[in-house]
Input
Amino acid sequence: MSTPEETARADQPADATDITSRKAGEIQLDTAVRYVFAACGVLTVLVTAGIIYVLIDGAQVFFASDIVDVQGFLTGNTWKPTSKTGDGTYKFGILPLVSGTLIIVVTSAVIALPTGLGAAIYLSEYASPRTRAIFKPTLEILAGVPTIVYGFFALFFITPFLDNFFQIRTFNALSAGIVVGIMIIPMVSSISEDAISAVPNSLREAAYGLGSTKFETTTRVVVPSALSGIISSYVLALSRAIGETMAVTVAAGQSAKMPFYPNVEQNLLQSIETITAAMINVASADIGGNTPAYDSMFALGLALFGMTFVMNLVAEYIAGRYREEY
Amino acid sequence: MATVDRLTFTNGLSKLKGAAFRLVCLGATAVGVLALAALLLTVTWGALGFDAAHPVWILVVLTATGLSTGGVVTYARRDETVKLAAISSTAALIGGAVLGVFAVVFQLIVTPSVWAAYAGGALLPALVTALVIPNRRYRLPATAAVLVGGGVVATVALDTLTELAGAADPWLLYLLTIVVPLAVLVWTRVEPTAGRRRAGLLAGGLVLAGVAVPLLTPAPDPLTPGLVLVFGLALFSPLGVLAWRRFRNGQSNVGLAAPLVIVGGAVVGVVIANATGFAAADPWLDWQFLTSPHSRLPEDAGLYPAVVGSFFIMMVMAAFAFPVSVGAAIYLEEYAPSTGWRGRIVQLIQVNIANLAGVPSVVYGLLGLAIIARGVSLGPFALWPGTGTGVVTTAAFTLGLLIMPITIISAQEAIRAVPDAHRRASYAMGASDWHTLRNVVLPEALPGILTGTILSLGRAIGETAPLIMIGAATTVYSPPTSLNDSVSAMPMQIYAWAGEFIADFRTGVLSAGVLTLLLAMLAINAVAILVRNRYERNQ
Amino acid sequence: MWYGDDRALHDVDMDIPEHRVTAIIGPSGCGKSTFLRCLNRMNDMVESARIEGAVRFDGTDIYDDAVDPIALRRQIGMVFQHPNPFPKSIYDNVAYGLRVQDEPVDDDVVETALRRAALWEEVEGQLDTSALELSGGQQQRLCIARAIAVDPDVILMDEPASALDPVATAKIEDLIEELAEEYTVVIVTHNMQQAARISDITAVFLTGGNLVEIDRTETVFKNPAHERVEEYITGQFG
Ligand SMILES: Nc1ncnc2c1ncn2[C@@H]1O[C@H](COP(=O)(O)OP(=O)(O)O)[C@@H](O)[C@H]1O
Ligand SMILES: [Mg+2]
Output
C-alpha cells in the first residue's frame, strides 16, 4: 500500500510531522524494558519448576536407596528416621505423620471455620464503619504474627490453661490445633468477607422486599450466594493448616504416633508429630547430607507439596466459579 | 386486630433470633481480638518482668500511663487536626525507629570508613550535581554519571580512602557525610518559605546536635557515638518532615507532642512507683538484652546478633525480591497479552503465582537448601555455585523467593487500581509504554506497591521454618558482617531458648525475645498501614 | 473494523478537511468512538480490534507497516469524553506531551497552551497545584491544553462536553471554534445542536457502524439526502 507520497516522506529528515519514526533508541529502550519485566514474570515459573525439581529429585534418591520403597513409605506405620528401632533399622513410614497432620487440621477446622465465617458475616453485614476499622486491622495483625510465636503461646499459655481441665501432656495436639485454628481465622474471614461483599445488593433488596428479616436475608440469601467463595476460603485455610510448621513443632511435640483407638480423646491429649514437624526434626538433627534421613525430607516435602498444591488448585477453581457468577 | 397481632408476634421472635445471630457473629469476630490481646498481654507481662513486681507498683505505673494516655486521647478527640497530628507523629516515630534500626545495622555491616569512602566519592558529588544543574533535561543523566563514576573511583581507591577515613572518629565521618549535607538540604528547603533566620537556626541546630549528641550521650557497647547519631537522625527525621509540612500548611503542631506525653506519663509513673518502695518490675527486655549475645546465664543472655542478623537478611532480601516482584507485577498487568495461546500462558503464570503463595514455607526451605545453598550444575557447568548453608545470602534468597508471590499479588492490585483513563490519556499523547509506566502508572501505584512490600517484610521477619531447613544456626555469638557469614535470626534464637534447661530462659528471656520480634513486626506493619492510610486519604 | 467477530464499522469512506471542524453524530453504540480511535490507532490497544482498508494522513496510510503508531499519536492529539488529567500539577499536565517527546519544557509553551485553551486566567499563579482540584470544565480545558501544547496537526475529541454542565459546555464550544483556525478538529458528539453550532462538516453514522451521510453541516441539517438521517435529526429515530 506504499504510496508515492510515503516514499517521498521517508527521504525527509525526521521533522515535526514525521509519523514513521521516533528518536533513536526510544523503541529499543521500550523493547528492552519489556523483556526485563517479562523475565521477572518467567522467574516465578522457574521457582515452581525449581521446587518440583528439588522435591522429585530428592525423593527419587530416597526411594532409590534400598531402605524403603514408595509403598513402604506410604503404608508404613512407624517413623524413626534418625534413631534405630528395636530391630536395628531406621523406619520411614509416613502414616503416623499423616495422622498427626490430620489431627491438627481437624482441630483447627473446628475452631476456625465457624469462627471465621461468623466474623466475615459480622464484618460485611453488621459492623459499622467504626467497628470495622477496629476489627479489620486486628485480624490483619493476627495474620501477621509469626507462627513460632503462636507455638509459644500454645505451649506456655494454652496448655497450662487446659491442664486445669484435662490430663494433658506438655506437648499435645489440642493446644497446637487450637492455635493453628486461631492463626487461620483471618484467612477464612477475609476471603469469605470478600465473597459476601461481592453478593450484589439487588439480591438483598429482593429478599427484604419479600418481607425477610435481616437474619433470614443473611442466612438464606447472602451466605448461600457467597457459598463458593466461602468454601474456597475453607479449602485455602485448611491447606495452610496442613503446611503450618513452627506452631505445631513447638507445641505438639515431635513424637510420631499412629492414631489412638478406641481412646480417641488421647489423640488430642498426647503429643504427636506432623509431616512438617518431622521435616524440621530431621533438619535440626544435624545428620548431614546424603543420608536416608536427609533424603526423606524431600519425600515428605513432596507429599506436603502435593497435598497443598491440589487444595490450592481446588480453591482457585471454586473461587473462579464465584467470580464468574457476578 | 388479628393481623397486627400476627405481625408483632413474628417480629418479636425473629428479632430475638436476629439479635442472637448478630451476637454470635460479633463473638466470632472478637475471638481474634481476644486471642491477640491475651498473647500480647502474656508476652509483655513476662518480658517486662511484672511478675517480680508488687501489685501496688504495677498499679501506680499503669495508672500514670493510663492517665497520660487518657489525657492525650480526650484532648485529641476534640480537635480533628490535633487528632491527626497525634496519630501521624506516633506513626512517624515508629517509622523512624524502624528506619533507625535498618540504618544502624547497615552501618554496622558496611563500617563507617567504607561508608565514608562511597559517600564522599559518589553520593555527595551526585547530590551536589543534582542541586547545581538547573536544566531538568541534563540533571538526571549528569547525576547518574557522577554517581556511577564516583562509585567506580571509590571502589578502585577503596583501600586508600578507607585508610584516610579510618583516621577520623566515625562520628566525625557521619557528621561530614550525613549531618552537614542534611543541614544544607534543610536550608535549601526551608529558606524560601520561612526566611533566612529560621532556616539558619534549623540548619545550625542540626549541625550542633550532630556534634553534641555523639559527644554528650553515652554510647553503650556495641553502639558507638556515631551509631547513636545515625539512629537519632533516622528516628527523628520523619517527625521533622511531618512538623515542617504542617508548619508550611499553617497547621498547629500541638498534637505532635502526643507520643512524648504518653511515654512521659509512663516514665513519671515508674519514678513515683519506685519511690513507694514496693518491689519494682525486673524487666528482661532491657538495653542489656538488646545488646548482648546469648549466654549460659539467663540474666546475661541477649538477642543482639540475631537482631542484626534478621535486619541484615531483610535488607539483602528486599534488594533482590522487591525489584523482581514489582517487575513481574508490571509485566502481568501492563504488558502481558490476554488473548490467544500467549494469553493462556500468562493465565498459567498467574495461577502459578497464586499457588506459590500457598506453598508451605518449609518447602521453600527445601528449595533453599538443595538449590540456593548447594548450587546446581548441569553436567560440568555450574549454573549456580551455591552460597552455602546457613549464611546470609542463602537466607535472604530463600526468604526472597518465599515472599515473592505475595509481593507480586499486592503490587498487581496496586497497579490495577490506576485508572485506565490515565493510561489512555498518556498513550493518546504519543507516549511509549515505558514512558507511560514511569510517569503515570508507577507514580500512582507506588504507595500501594510500597504497602504490599513493607507488609511482606513483616511476614519475612518472623519466618523460622525455612531458616531451619537451610541450616541457619539457632545461636551465633557475634553478628554477621558479610554476606557469607553464618547468621541467626530473631525467631531462631527464640526457638533455641524454648529448649533451654533453666526455667528463666523459657519464661523471661523467651518473652523478651518474642516481644522484641512482635514489636519489630508491629512497627513494620504500622509503617505499611500508615503509607496506605495516607494514600487512601489522598484519593 | 471488527472487535473479534463483531463488525463495528462498515465501509466508511470520508475525507476530513484541514482546518475545519468535522462533527460526527449518530445514536449511541453506532461506532463513532470506534471510528475516532481508528484515526490515531488507539484501537491498537484493544487486542480484539482488527481493521481493513486505509486511513490516509497527509497521503500516508497510517496503518502502513512503516508507520509508528506512537509517533503518529504525537501528531494527532485526543481529548476524551471524561476529563482525565493526570494526578500531577497543572504545569506537569501541560508539559507532559513535551516530556514525552523529549523536548525542552519551557514556561512559555505551557502558558501559550493554557491561553489557547482559555484556561490561563483561571489558573495563573497556581500552576503547581494538583490538576484534580480543578472543576470538571476546567479539567477538560486542561486536557485540551495538554493536547495542543505539543502543537499537533489534528485534534480528535470524543464527546468532550457530555460530562459537563451547560456553562462549561459553552466555553468548550467557543474554544473548539477558535482551535479550528490552526488545527484540524474531529469531534464526536451525540448532541445535534452542538454539531450544528460548531462544525463545518457533519458526518452521520447510524446503527450498525454505517456512515450514512457526510456533507456541509448546513446541508445535513437543513436538507439531508437520506430519509433516515432526517428522521434521526428531527428526533423520530429510536
Ligand atoms: N473495546 C471494545 N471491544 C469490543 N467491542 C467494542 C469495544 N468498544 C466498542 N465496542 C462495540 O463497538 C460498537 C460501537 O461502539 P462505540 O464506538 O463506542 O459507539 P459510540 O461511540 O457511537 O457510542 C458497540 O457495539 C460497542 O459495543
Ligand atoms: Mg462513544
Q: What stands out?
A: Residues C 32-33, 158 surround magnesium ion (ligand 2) (CB under 6 Å). Chain B touches chain A through 89 residues (CB under 8 Å).
